[in-house]
Write a structure and sequence with these properties.
single chain, about 450 residues, seven-stranded mixed beta sheet, six-stranded mixed beta sheet, 20 strands, binds nicotinamide-adenine-dinucleotide
C-alpha cells in the first residue's frame, strides 16, 4: 500500500494532474468507460446483486455520466479564481480565492451501488486534479474486478489506481497518509475510518446511512405515493442508503395506503417477485440472516406487528420478498437500526405533530420524505426537522440532481458531494493576496506603537 501511495504522490508532485486538459481527458475517459463498457458493467451487477440492466443504467451508470457531463460543462467556470474585496487597511491589493487540488486521495466504496458510489466521487477527484486510490467493495466482487481492470485500461495509471480487497486492505490503506479520505458505508465503519484519519489529521467525507422516514398524509394522491414508495423502497431489494426505511402515517392513511403499496409491488414485480428479472437479491448470507431474523418473531405471531405483504424468502438464493409490516412501534426490533433490506415497517401516529416529534427525537436521517400537498405541513417539515435532504413526493430522486448537495448530517454523515461540491471536497480554497510594494501603505501597521502615526 505504501508503494502505491508513494507512486501516486510522486506523480502528483510532478504536476501531471493539475492542467485543465488532463482533468478533462480523464473525465472523458471515465465517461467512455461507463458508456462503451456499459454492457460489461451491467453483467457484473447482475452477478453480484441480481441487478436488472435497466435499473443498473438508471441508478448507477447514468448517474455518474450525468455528473461527468455537468462537470465538463462547468469546470472551467468553477476553476476560475474568484476575486474578493480588500479592506481599506490592506488596499491597494488584489485578493483571490484559488482552488488547488488536495493531493493524493482515497475513495472507499460500499457494495450496494458499487459503480455509482466508487465513480461519482472520482468525478470530483479528477475534476479537482487529485491523484486517487479507489477501494471498491469486496462484497460486489465481479464489479470490483471489472472496475479494477477497466480503470487500469482506460484511465491514467500514473494517477489513478484501484486497490481491491476488504477489511485488511482498507485498514492497511488507512495507515497511509492521504490528503483526503472519502468513505461511503456504514456508521460503524465510518467511525473506524474517522479515527484512522484523525491520526494523520486527514480530512474526511463520510457518506453514511440511517433510518430515513417517509410521511404520508391524506392530502396526497395515495395511489401515486404508494407507487413511488414501493419503487424507492424495493429497488435493489431495499439495499439503498436513501431508501425510505419506514413509513409514518395516521391509522386511516396507513389503512388505505398499505393495500396500494401491495398493488404497486405486484405491478412492478408480478405475483411472484422471485421470478421477476426486475427484483434484486440480498448481498450476502449475513444480510439474509439478519433480515429474516427480524421477520421471524412477526411470522410466529409474537407482538402486535403483522405481515401485510410478502415475508417469504429463500436462503439458497438470498431472496426476500418485498415485505410490509404493519402495527410496528418505535420499540420494535425493526425500528432499532437501519434495515437496509426490502422490509417496510409502518408506524402509525396521531398527527403530523407526533410524526415530527418522533423524527426529531431520533438520529438525524440521511433523507426525509413526505407526501403532502399541504403547504403549511411542508413548511413545518422543512423547518422543524433536520436531515441530509428532504424530498417531497419523490423518495431517492434527489441524488440524481447534480446541483443538490448529497450527504448526511449528524450520524448520517459528514460533508456532501455531487456537482460543484464534489470539486470542493477534493480542493483546497487557497487565499491569494497580492499587494504592490509602493506606496508602502502597510506602514500604518508597523511598530513602534508608541506614537500615533498621522499619515503614511
Ligand atoms: P461497510 O461500512 O461495511 O463497508 C464500506 C467499505 O468499508 C467497504 O469498501 C469495506 O471493504 C470497507 N470496510 C468494511 N469494514 C471495514 C473495517 N473494519 N475497516 C476498514 N474498512 C472496512 O458498508 P456496506 O455494507 O458496504 O454498505 C452499507 C452501508 O453503507 C449502509 O449503512 C448504508 O446506508 C451505507 N451507505 C451510505 C450511502 C451514502 O451515500 N450515504 C450509500 C450507500 C450505502
Amino acid at each position: 500500500m505504501a508503494t502505491v501511495v508513494d507512486d501516486l504522490r510522486q506523480t502528483f508532485d510532478t504536476g501531471l494532474t493539475k492542467p485543465y486538459a488532463w482533468r478533462v481527458a480523464q473525465l472523458r475517459a471515465l465517461r467512455a468507460l461507463l458508456v462503451d463498457r456499459g454492457d460489461e458493467i451491467e453483467r457484473t451487477l447482475w452477478l453480484d446483486l441480481h441487478k436488472n440492466g435497466d435499473e443498473a443504467r438508471l441508478t448507477e451508470i447514468d448517474v455518474v455520466v450525468a455528473e461527468i457531463d455537468h462537470t465538463l460543462k462547468h469546470l472551467r467556470e468553477w476553476l476560475r479564481p474568484t476575486r474578493v474585496p480588500v479592506p481599506l487597511l490592506v488596499a491597494p491589493a488584489t485578493a483571490q480565492v484559488v482552488r488547488e487540488p488536495l493531493g493524493v486521495v482515497l475513495i472507499v466504496a460500499p457494495w450496494n451501488y458499487p459503480v455509482q458510489l466508487l465513480l461519482a466521487p472520482l468525478v470530483g477527484a479528477l475534476a479537482a486534479g487529485c491523484a486517487v486510490v479507489l477501494k471498491p467493495s469486496e462484497l460486489a466482487p465481479a464489479t470490483s474486478a471489472l472496475l479494477a481492470r477497466l480503470v487500469g485500461e482506460l484511465l491514467d495509471g500514473r494517477a489513478v489506481r484501484v486497490v481491491e480487497g476488504g477489511v485488511d486492505e482498507t485498514t492497511a490503506l488507512l495507515e497511509q497518509r492521504f490528503d483526503h479520505v472519502f468513505f461511503t458505508g456504514s456508521e460503524r465503519v465510518g467511525r473506524i475510518v474517522y479515527a484512522a484519519a484523525a491520526k494523520q489529521l486527514t480530512p474526511v467525507t463520510l457518506e453514511l446511512g440511517g433510518k430515513s422516514p417517509v410521511w404520508v398524509d391524506d392530502t396526497t394522491d395515495l395511489e401515486v405515493a404508494a407507487r413511488r414508495i414501493a419503487w424507492a423502497k424495493f429497488m435493489n431489494a431495499g439495499q439503498t442508503c436513501v431508501a425510505p426505511d419506514y413509513l409514518l402515517a395516521t391509522e386511516s392513511v396507513a389503512a388505505r395506503l398499505v393495500p396500494l403499496i401491495g398493488a404497486a409491488v405486484r405491478r412492478f414485480y408480478g405475483d411472484d417477485p422471485r421470478a421477476s428479472t426486475s427484483y434484486g437479491r440480498l448481498v450476502s448470507d449475513e444480510a439474509f440472516e439478519r433480515l429474516s431474523g427480524l421477520l421471524r418473531p412477526i411470522q410466529q405471531g409474537a407482538g402486535a406487528a403483522r405481515l401485510a405483504l410478502g415475508g417469504d424468502s429463500d436462503a439458497a438464493t438470498r431472496y426476500l420478498a418485498p415485505t410490509v409490516v404493519t402495527g410496528v412501534t418505535f420499540d420494535d426490533e425493526l425500528m432499532a437500526a437501519e434495515l437496509f433490506g426490502p422490509i417496510l415497517p409502518v408506524v402509525t401516529v396521531a398527527s403530523l405533530d407526533d410524526a415530527l416529534e418522533a423524527i426529531r427525537s431520533r438520529p438525524k436521517p440521511l433523507a426525509l420524505y413526505a407526501f403532502t400537498e399541504d403547504d403549511r405541513s411542508r413548511r413545518r417539515i422543512l423547518t422543524l426537522t433536520s436531515s441530509g435532504a428532504v424530498a417531497f413526493n419523490a423518495p431517492s430522486a434527489h441524488l440524481a440532481v447534480p446541483g443538490l448537495p448529497f450527504g448526511g448530517v449528524g450520524p448520517s454523515g459528514i460533508g456532501a458531494y455531487h456537482g460543484e461540491r464534489s470539486l470542493d471536497v477534493f480542493s483546497h480554497e487557497k487565499a491569494v493576496l497580492s499587494k504592490p510594494l509602493h506606496p508602502d501603505t502597510l506602514a500604518v501597521a508597523y511598530p513602534p506603537f508608541t506614537a500615533r502615526k498621522d499619515s503614511v
